[in-house]
């Protein structure tokens, strides 16, 4: 056993239909083939030969899990990075596999939005919240502007303030290529709030959910959009509990 091996996978919400726990394990195994130790490669070859001699079908999840954990145990230090775990659909299945992977000695690094099921599944791990610090952003923007011809110009403090307020979608490179403070101010003032892009992205995520969940979300949006006054949570639950052609509230709904 020797060396450090880091495996990585990015969970892309646009690829939810083909992204499965099995496919993630296959991707990680492929990285082991490319960067693993001779012992790991020999182990993979042995397992492949044994599997191919008995079946031509793709290996099942249980087989892939066993193969991966066995290979992990052959490395002194192995790390698996799962980026954007919240974008992966079948997390329950993946969590059960990750438990086996961790037992084999692998260190896990996961990035995700703070969702309840992910927090519960990873409750034994260390949680670090990552967010932009306003003062750090201000220092960064001021430093970038100091390298431009606007260094020390009147009005730069206002530019810095607006940039920090729009940091999530502002293109610094484009901004610093402008030639006057007036151009920069006009550019900042003309920036949209980004709501259209945010709504489009949210809708894509909704439609990427399993059909039953997507239908439920669209139904909820329909209620929210068409009501004449704001609904309380209890009222929404009651609305969902009434089925078509029925005037009764079904408690099981």
Structural overview:
The model has no long low-confidence stretch (mean pLDDT 79). By secondary structure, the chain is mainly α. It folds into three domains: 4-121, no CATH class; 134-190, no CATH class; 195-241, no CATH class. Helix 2 (38-54) packs antiparallel against helix 3. Helix 4 (91-103) links the parallel strand 2 (77-83) and strand 3. It is built from twelve helices and three strands.
| Neighbour order of strands in the largest sheet | 1-2-3
Q: Which assembly state applies to the chains in this document?
A: single chain
- How would a textbook summarize the main sheet? 3 strands, parallel
- Count of the separate structural domains: 3
| Residues in helix, % | 40-55%
Determine the number of helices (DSSP H or I, runs of at least 4 residues): 12
Number of strands: 3
Shape by Cα distribution? flat
Q: What pattern of helices and strands is seen along the backbone?
A: EHHHEHEHHHHHHHH
Structural class: mainly alpha
Bin the strand percentage.
Answer: 5-15%
Q: What is the distance, rounded to the nearest whole angstrom, between the alpha carbons of the first and last residues? A: 55 Å
């Amino acid at each position: 056993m020797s060396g450090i091996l880091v495996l990585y996978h990015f969970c892309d919400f646009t690829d939810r239909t083909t992204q499965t726990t099995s496919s993630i394990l296959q991707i990680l195994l492929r990285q082991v083939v490319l960067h693993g130790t001779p012992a790991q490669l020999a182990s993979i070859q042995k397992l492949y030969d044994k599997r191919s001699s008995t079946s031509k079908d793709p290996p099942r999840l249980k087989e892939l899990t066993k193969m991966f954990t066995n290979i992990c145990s052959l490395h002194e230090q192995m790390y698996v990075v799962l980026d954007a775990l919240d974008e992966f659909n079948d997390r329950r299945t993946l969590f059960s596999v990750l438990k086996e992977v961790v037992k084999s000695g692998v260190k896990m690094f996961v990035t995700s939005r703070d969702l309840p099921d992910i927090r519960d599944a990873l409750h034994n791990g260390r949680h670090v919240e990552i967010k932009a610090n306003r003062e750090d952003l201000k220092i960064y923007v001021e430093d970038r502007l100091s390298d431009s011809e606007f260094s020390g110009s009147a009005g730069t403090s206002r530019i810095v303030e607006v940039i920090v307020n729009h940091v999530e979608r502002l293109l610094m490179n484009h901004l610093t290529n402008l030639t006057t403070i007036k151009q920069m101010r006009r550019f900042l003032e003309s920036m949209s709030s980004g709501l259209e892009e945010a709504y489009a992205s949210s809708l894509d995520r909704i439609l990427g959910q399993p059909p039953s969940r997507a239908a439920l979300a669209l139904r909820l949006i329909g209620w929210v959009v068409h009501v004449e006054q704001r609904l309380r949570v209890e009222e929404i639950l009651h609305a969902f509990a009434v089925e078509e052609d029925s005037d009764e509230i079904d408690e099981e709904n």
